[in-house]
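ok new one. same drill as before - structure tokens go in, u give me an amino acid for every spot. 290 of them this time. try not to just spam alanines like last time pls lmao
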């Protein structure tokens, strides 16, 4: 998207099995002696791999170099399901949306903007109209929007915020962490590999699972869809057909998770995937004690 907008991008590829490495951010910024880099852009929860980047550590890496770049974070699949602190972690622009932890259809976007980012947007030369913060902030002060708001979704948002408050955010985050751990225990019991290699970076909202040997993930996903009407996430890009994803984001409870894991374990047998049995039991045992 940034390239299409005519920006110069220094894309740092990574191995898709870890979150963003704070040391690489530090090195890149230290090398930028002319301070040409305007912003460091990071995805908090990488929905395609199940790796969660350590935002506070990346902030510290930026600060160690004393680089003035803005720090921008995509929290689309973490907002409302994973602990995230825009102010405390010193983020300049946080982007969220309605369709994941807020449990709504797609259609709403949220920006949290620091004073530094707001000041930068005033002198920025990229054309903008619909996405102009100034116009939005001015109208929001009186409870209005500069253009037609997605009214129906705002009614839904009021209800989803009420649900999150009723459960308590700490409980919501804990529920996702607990389901993440139960899922990983099932995956290990099946004898399969979790794509994310760093336990500190395990996503609490989804787990990407590597298929054994050269067995295709998409044929397995098709079997599960056909037999049990359950849609598992696919692998994207270079992970296509290599991984499937188990998501438990948003409105989700223990029985829904166990049903999901049952569908996978039964799907292994139906599709002839080489996996051990007992994953569902391992997840149930964990949920019973935690
Ligand atoms: C981390 C992340 N960023 C961004 C998006 C939004 O992408 P798009 O609006 O193109 O579906 C998604 C998916 O909804 C996502 O999971």
């Amino acid at each position: 998207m940034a390239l299409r907008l005519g920006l110069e991008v220094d894309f740092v590829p990574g191995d898709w099995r870890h979150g963003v490495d704070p040391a690489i951010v530090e090195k890149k910024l230290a090398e930028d002696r002319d301070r040409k880099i305007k912003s460091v852009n990071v995805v908090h929860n990488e929905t395609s791999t199940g790796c969660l980047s350590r935002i506070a550590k990346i902030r510290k890496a930026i600060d160690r170099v004393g680089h003035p770049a803005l720090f921008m974070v995509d929290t689309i699949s973490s907002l409302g399901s994973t602990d995230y602190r825009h102010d405390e972690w010193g983020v300049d622009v946080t982007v969220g949306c309605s369709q994941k932890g807020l449990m709504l259809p797609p259609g709403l976007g949220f920006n949290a903007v620091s004073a530094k980012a707001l000041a930068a947007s005033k002198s920025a030369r990229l054309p903008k109209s619909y996405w102009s913060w100034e116009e939005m902030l001015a109208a929001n002060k009186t409870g209005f929007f500069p253009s037609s708001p997605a009214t129906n979704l705002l009614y839904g948002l009021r209800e989803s915020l009420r649900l999150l408050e009723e459960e308590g955010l700490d409980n919501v985050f804990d529920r996702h962490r607990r389901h993440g751990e139960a899922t990983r225990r099932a995956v290990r019991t099946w004898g399969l590999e979790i794509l994310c290699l760093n336990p500190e970076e395990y996503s609490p909202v989804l787990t990407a699972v590597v298929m054994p040997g050269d067995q295709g993930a998409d044929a397995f996903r098709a079997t599960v869809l056909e037999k049990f009407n359950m849609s598992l996430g696919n692998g994207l890009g270079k992970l296509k057909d290599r991984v499937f994803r188990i998501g438990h984001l948003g409105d989700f409870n223990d029985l829904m998770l166990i049903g999901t894991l049952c569908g996978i374990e039964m799907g292994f047998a139906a599709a002839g995937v080489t996996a051990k049995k007992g994953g569902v039991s391992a997840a149930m045992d964990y949920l019973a004690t935690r």
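The pocket of pyridoxal-5'-phosphate is lined by residues 43, 47, 74, 76-77, 99 (CB under 6 Å). and btw The first strand starts at residue 39 and ends at 43.
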